[in-house]
Amino acid sequence: MTEERKISMAVIRRLPRYYRYLGELLDNGVTKISSRELSEKMKVTASQIRQDLNNFGGFGQQGYGYNVEYLHKEIGKILGLENTHSMIIVGVGNLGQALANYTSFEKRGFNLIGLFDVNPRLVGMSIRGIEVLDIDKMEEFVKEHKVDIAILTMPKTKVKETAENLAKWGVRGLWNFSPVDLFVPDGVQVENVHLSHSLMTLAYRINECEGE
Amino acid sequence: MTEERKISMAVIRRLPRYYRYLGELLDNGVTKISSRELSEKMKVTASQIRQDLNNFGGFGQQGYGYNVEYLHKEIGKILGLENTHSMIIVGVGNLGQALANYTSFEKRGFNLIGLFDVNPRLVGMSIRGIEVLDIDKMEEFVKEHKVDIAILTMPKTKVKETAENLAKWGVRGLWNFSPVDLFVPDGVQVENVHLSHSLMTLAYRINECEGE
DNA sequence: TAGATTGTTAATCGATTAACAATC
DNA sequence: TAGATTGTTAATCGATTAACAATC
Asked: Which residues bind DNA (chains A, B) (predicted)?
């Protein structure tokens, strides 16, 4: 596959937001929108919207604007939402269970196919029809099923080793919820959700803006 | 308070990571570190570390480097971690419960003091000694207790209204887990955790890097 | 056609990196 | 003092915004 140009992460991270807004417009029966109108709703510049979209092609029409349904669909394609993705959860504690119970991921084609934990109390339990397996069974499972994404919601002590193994066994995406930085081989993508970092930056801003 | 200069969010978002690494060094008994050594560990440039830190003052010593304990403590102060912060959770579903059970926030001074939900089945239940109250009691509670941060883990339909109310009642930080953009008055800080966005960007990268 | 709005180039702004004088 | 490393200025790089020609 010949990539024309590397798209910056700043752009990529804005795409889901565009996708969400366009979805809402679609639900409200809006058929067309200009970059200016969308920019006012989203509180960004129209220039940025047009630049962002033109990284991927010309989706609009001069003098008219953008067809909402078409643009929504195209951004979905860019994000890879026309494919389904299979996921497993490694670590079925509080957070793992919460994510396992999320049904909205499925709507976007993210299907949960496996749950793993070391805790014998959890093994054998089922969440939404999926049985929690012992972590010893994970290698076999991953090699047998095509696993696109592993959700890492386990204690941080074992994350590094687990991530290395999963990468070795062919998992291409790691959604990491541990406060640990994973350095994995090329070709494996890591997306971190550092809740404690997020909370700390909120604390900073609260303290900074005291008395504003 | 006279702010000298506006610090960019890019810098702020790196601070928790510095804080974490320095904490680890501290635990390992490391007493001093140079920006170069730290940069190698963290895979960032030494220049960036020095620039970032010098936004807040000179914490190092020429020819020596940085004292790990001192720097760790100072970054903690910058992030506001020497203060405690009181938090409530609004919406005690799967994710709300998971966050309520997190004990690690407490270690950093983030104390949970209230839980609220509309669901009569959840009201009256206790998590870690905190009773879930009916959402009708929230206004009174917030006005009586000093609430710094509200964690919004409720269905998205009610988030906008709830956020506006909480802001009105004096809550200064909103940690928002709903796929909704909140536009609140100045002085109220919003930190979004858009899990679905995070997952979509991971999907994009997996698809993009196919065959790499 | 005239008006509107895109796609795209150019200008600006901000963030990152490099370089080096200051100094421990 | 000599060596090391910071703090800080200058250079570069990238991202955002502005402007406008293309065109529907």
From this structure: 17-56
Mean pLDDT for back-to-back runs of 10 residues, chain A (212 residues): 70 98 98 98 98 96 97 97 96 97 94 98 97 98 97 96 97 97 94 98 89 46
Q: Are strands B60-61 and B32-33 parallel, antiparallel or unpaired?
A: unpaired
| CA distance linking residue A68 with residue A83, whole number of Å | 21
In terms of CA atoms, which chain A residue is nearest residue B20? A179
Q: Return the residue matching tokens 């900073």.
A: A204
CA→C1' distance for B81 and D5 (Å): 29
B110 interface with A at CB cutoff 8 Å? yes
A37: tokens are: 């109108």
Please, which residues bridge with residue A111 across strands?
A86
- By the 10 Å C-beta count (0-12 exposed, 13-18 middle, 19+ buried), A7 is classed as middle
Q: What is the pLDDT of residues B114-169, one digit of tens each?
A: 999 999 999 999 999 999 999 999 999 999 999 999 999 999 999 999 999 999 99
- Please say whether the beta carbons of B211 and B194 come within 8 A: no
Residue A79, amino acid? L
- A85-197 to CATH, choices 3.40.50.920, 3.20.20.140, 3.40.50.720, 2.60.40.1120: 3.40.50.720
Hey, which bits of A41-188 come out as E strands?
60-61, 65-67, 85-90, 110-117, 126-127, 130-134, 149-152, 173-176
pLDDT of residue B1: 35
Count of alpha carbons within 13 angstroms of residue A8, beta-carbon side: 6
B29 annotated to bind ligand = no
Domain ranges of chain A: 9-79, 85-197
Residue partners of B131: CB distance under 8 A and separation at least 6: B115, B124, B125
- Chain A's closest residue to B13, CA to CA, is A201
Q: % helix / strand / coil in chain B, to the nearest 5? A: 45, 20, 35
Q: Choose which CATH entry (3.30.70.1350, 1.10.10.10, 1.20.120.1080, 3.20.20.60) describes domain A9-79.
A: 1.10.10.10
CA distance A137 to A169: 13
B190 phi and psi angles, rounded to 5 deg = -120, 130
Give the mutation candidate from A4, A147, A157, A202 for the B interface (greatest B CB count, under 10 A): A202
How far apart are the C-alpha atoms of A188 and B128, rounded to whole Å? 38
A155 near A94, Cβ under 8 Å?
Answer: no
